[in-house]
Amino acid sequence: MSERRKIGIMGGTFDPIHNGHLLAADEAHAALGLSEVIFVPTGQPPHKANQKVTSAEERYIMAEMATANCPYFTVSRIEIDRAGESYTIDTLRTLHSMPEYKDVLFYFITGLDAVLNIMTWKNPEEIIQMCSFVAVSRYGYSHNRVELLPQDLRDKIIPLEIPLLAISSTELRERIRTGRSIKFMVPAAVEQFIMKKSLYKH
Ligand code: NAP
Question: Which residues pair with 37 in a beta bridge?
Fold first, then answer.
């Protein structure tokens, strides 16, 4: 019997996408034998309603630029083109219903902090049935809080520590705002796009 195809869904606001995200997706690809990693930038993140977020289109363009030279990375407009707030449950339902993803095992790759909050997302029980989770953390981050999650969710969480991942989108925005360099933290094309569009200056 042939093994089921495994596909990663890299979910994030990606404001902006950085080398840590790319490294995490590549590590997950290798560690789990994923055939593809689909980057899914959020359209309207429901948990960031009170926060200034760069336009979905600009975050999508940066994701395309960042992943362009990797054959097994793709970027989906699924959340950007869907009206209203971006709920992961809707994304998973759509992907599961697509004929090209029939019989696929999905791995939702995102930050550990986000995974720890899944029980507050829309329809968490259904989400847990639809995929496994790759919880990406930075070096030295404690996974203790995972033990507080329900057992059926814990059983589906694969921790992925990225030792070199000290970069965060928050830190990048702060560096740009205060005039510091982001060179080598994001792909060159993304850095050029941020400068050209004067993103994150204020
Ligand atoms: P966030 O709260 O901005 O990020 C939490 C932490 O995870 C940050 O340290 C972040 O670092 C990191 N992170 C985020 N995405 C990552 C990724 N793909 N790989 C590695 N680290 C990542 O989370 P978010 O980016 O807005 O949302 C994460 C995912 O959860 C999205 O797909 C979102 O749609 C989903 N979500 C769904 C619901 C819902 O359905 N109700 C609610 C909340 C979140 P950086 O800032 O450096 O990225």
Answer: 8, 73
